[in-house]
Amino acid sequence: MARFQTPILIFSFAFLLSTILLHSSVVFAIRHGSKTWVFSLSLHHPDSKLNHTAIQGFSRLEGDKARVNYINSRLRKALFKSSDPRFGSEEIQTPIANQGGAYIASLGVGQPATEFNLLADTGSEVTWLQCAPCTSGCEGSVFDPSRSSSYQPLSCSSQKCDALQEANKCGTSSDGGCSYAVSYGDQSFSRGDFITETLSFGRSGTVRNVGIGCGRENGGNVADGGFTGILGLGPSPISFPSQIKATSFSYCLVEPGSGSSSTLDFNSVAPRDSVNVALNRNPSADVYYYVELSGITVGEDQVQIPPSVYKIGSDGTGGIIVDSGTTLTYLDSDVYSSFIDAFQRNAQNLPGSPVSVQGLDSCYKFPSGTSASSIKGLAMKLEFSDGQTVPFGPGNYFIQVDNSTFCLAFQPTGQIVSIIGNVLQSGMRVTYDLGNSLIGFSPKKC
User: pLDDT at residue 423 above 80?
Assistant: First the structure.
């Protein structure tokens, strides 16, 4: 179990003041006995330092459908493995976000701390990074346990090892310690020792005894994506928020190419203007964060969604999840058909010229140098079953595919679950209030 160190409580007044000024929504909570503080990590997109002419929008879509397929494959495995012989005990198959869809958090590991870039992923549970000695696939930064005084191996009988569930590969290590293995839809994978380490959040605090994977054998596209491991944010006892006992976490996904960065915060309070929507859990397969969508307003048109479409069924199928690693938003095929009709009816006043782009719908060419957030035009709202409504602008529903072409960042899916992707979430503070089972959306709070 993660324990907070005493140094967490030692903050300068200047640091507290500067943090509050930077994020007026953040409140530092001090609870007697629990010593709860807000922890922050720097969060950026790999394209954050590129200008718009350098962004290759199609790279954001590469592998996106594979991720959708594997998210659904993982759900099928969880829901039907007891009755379907096709689902065996293979490694977890949760596709990693490709470089274009990734958002990267900087986290200090070990004592003394060394900073590493990890992909922040609500669709993953296990946190891991490349470790020495490494037998394969350790490009870029590699954590050296021999230089850390806080590195501790775990036994196969430990609670943390048991919490790995499918990723637990005890018995494969030569020293008999806890081992893990995770693989991803783009053929990336990591295998190694599951250990505990001290993790640091810059100036905002340190947490000891957090279970992470020390990847000795890795493969695929990890180093190519600008990160050296995964920060697992999913709803699992072994996920990062669970281990540090965070009551909430929040992020703001900046627009790629904007030149900006933001923060990934833990234990932060949602902004006052946040629209808070019920956060649901799938009792049959508690591996993703669900919401219940009831309608979409596009301009003057309202697309009604039958309650049965996005309500989690008794068999665990259905629903719509919020995912940080999927780029586009994927809607049920029938819902998408009504949605795209409404969009095209209301898109007549958009300033761009319609163009055709293979594999995407409703594409427009704008003047060179245009950003999605600068496009003026059609308003959109998502409506949820608890009566809450979240507004979105062009910066949320358009994806840039070249220097001047933007396409609607929605696609149809016939799979068992739909997905709200990271383009639709961009430019707003998204708060996962785990204690109150709410997810908050607050525009322009990066």
Answer: yes
The DSSP letter of residue 126 is -
The pLDDT tens digits for 30-39 are 333 445 688 9
d(CA 70, CA 110) in angstroms, rounded, equals: 33
User: Which one from 193, 265, 323, 332 is the annotated catalytic residue?
Assistant: 323
CB 255 within 8 A of CB 427: yes
Q: Name the pTM for this structure.
A: 0.85
Measured at the alpha carbon of residue 192, what is the angle toward residues 191 and 198, in degrees to the nearest 5?
125
Task: Retrieve residue 81's tokens.
Answer: 């493995």
CA 231 and chain centroid, separation: 9
Quick: pLDDT tens for 140-158. Answer: 889 999 999 999 999 999 9
Give the domains, in start order, of the chain with CATH numbers. 32-266 (2.40.70.10), 275-443 (2.40.70.10)
Q: Tell me, what amino acid is at 388? A: Q
Give the whole-number percent of the chain exceeding pLDDT 90: 52
HSE of 224, CA atoms in CB hemisphere, 13 A: 14
The Cα 208–Cα 197 span in angstroms is 6
Alpha carbons 90 and 181: distance in angstroms, whole number: 10
H helix or E strand, kind and range, residue 72: helix 64-80
Coil, helix or strand for 207? strand
Average pLDDT over every residue of 330-350? 93
> What single DSSP character describes residue 95?
P
Neighbours of 56 (CB within 10 A): 16
> Which CA distances in Å does 226 have to 44, 99, 190?
11, 7, 16
Catalytic-role residue among 121, 186, 332, 433: 121
Do 145 and 112 touch, CB atoms closer than 8 A? no
323 is catalytic: yes
Residue 14, phi-psi category: left (phi > 0), alpha (psi -120 to 50), beta (remainder): alpha
Q: Over the stretch 270-324, which tens digit does the pLDDT of each residue have?
A: 999 999 999 999 988 888 999 999 999 999 899 999 988 999 988 888 889 999 9
The pLDDT, as a whole number, for residue 50 is 47
Cβ atoms < 10 Å from Cβ of 109: 27
In whole angstroms, give the CA distance from residue 103 to residue 225: 10
Q: In the annotation, is 332 catalytic?
A: no
DSSP state of 155: B
DSSP state of 136: B
pLDDT digits (tens, 9 = 90+) for 200-231: 998 888 999 999 999 999 887 665 567 889 99
Pick from 237, 72, 221: nearest CA to 158: 237
